[in-house]
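[job 4471] stage=fold_predict status=RUNNING
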Amino acid sequence: MDQRRLILFLVFAFSIVMLWEGWIKHNQPAPVAQTPAASTAGDIGAVPTPSAGLGATPTPAVPGEQAAPSGAPRMVVITDAVRAEISASGGDIVRLELENHKASDDKTRNFVLLDDGGRHLYNAQTGLIGDGLPNHKTVFELPAAELALKDGEDSLVVRLQAPEQNGVKVTKVMTFRRGSYLVDVAYEIDNGSAQALAPHAYFQLTRDGQPAEQVQAFGVHTFTGPAFYTEAEKFHKVQFEDIEKNKAKFPKNASDGWVAMVQHYFVGAWLPAAGVEREFFARKVGTDLYSAGVILPVAEIAPGASGKVDANLYVGPQEQDKLKDIAPGLDLVVDYGWLTVIAAPLFWVLSWFHQLTGNWGWAIILVTVTIKLLFFPLSAASYKSMAKMRVLAPRLQRMKELYGNDKAKMQQEMMSLYRNEKINPLGGCLPILVQIPVFIALYWVLLGSVEMRHAPWLGWIQDLAAKDPYFILPVIMGVSMLVQMKLNPTPPDPIQAKVMMAMPIVFTFMFLWFPSGLVLYWVVNNCLSIAQQWQITRMIEGGKSGSGKPA
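[job 4471] inference complete, writing structure tokens
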């Protein structure tokens, strides 16, 4: 297979993958949104039961459980980072908006992460396990209709009182902090009964199985579902269908680690303190409804004494530089697909350039230049080979005329010519082979990094993770590809020549729908390649040996 045929194969294979990806995405059915009437926060899920390995198994809270009525009262908590709605049913967060992140379809509205049925059913639930103790179905007393973080305050504390049962008073305490997506959730237990208490506490995330802002690329979907992490067993993602089939694999017991509900760009996670024994669980709790959580033991509380159990809840964006500081391994929730080994360091370099420039668009341009410099010797050798092929084009055409009817003889003469001129006929394909994995990795970085979401560059490009609204960059990209084609040797086969000249049109059409940040990378890369290729071609055609270095 000669150089031109290999290039055609690579280009067409890549085009087919991209077209197939677009077809799958276009024909994928939209998620079915649940309505608030379908279910309420106080009705979903059952109280989990700890295993014997976590200590004495308490009696589930059946006698003292007070089921929350449909449409339980709510209160609103407002900080500079979140707007949360807390239901009297369980004192749980049933809806949470992110003040600094806007909705995908309407940038005038906040993005809704925890949802009560507007588009999804997704709650952060907690409770105690034990006879007469409150759980996520118990009706709590709300302290106010609305609480807001005031100027000069760094935190806001919400205290929810559960009905007293058998002399046991339980207060659920939630602490919101300025500029933070972390919520401290604690239970204060005053044992006024005549018996010692040895309860357990559970912290769970209950969600429907429908994806949110799902992206599909190169045969891989961004992940939506539970994830678990422990130091011993590291990071585990769990598919909803595996939970339904009782095939889910994740760590069950540990003295560290966390449980999360992961989706594109955002994550909710329960983060218990290290050094406390815990039991993880994941289960189906209703039609297209799943819970994943953790159970913590509470130290025995003697009559007349008090006890406490707590865990942190993170509900916010997957900001990688902050996640790793919040909990070990939490940054692993960022999903870069099967090219994480390239995408992760690529994002690190992007972030470093972003710190220098303050703009993700300029960071992409600087990364493109860096990649081009990194692979400069390889691409220089390739362009030299292509330039020599261009010089030999008339001789190859004469061979075709002489041996057009004898394919074997023609191939033999071509190989002899390549050896004599020290040309690698496959050398021109190396830039394509190098660029494709980087291209796909950057695709994942742009689509998987919340930092890129709604990030502007300049002028008309106000979202590097979305398509160019006026298709200016894709057109420039198509023109640059056409210029590159003109610098390449013309295939002697007229059909191959026409196909190669059609490639800029095909790629321009596909790139119309790609993230503008990705098209920006390709445009800059093409312009740098044109400059390098033009210089090398000019030197070769001028009879100079040259070093292949750009002017």
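[job 4471] summary: The first strand starts at residue 74 and ends at 78.
[job 4471] exit 0
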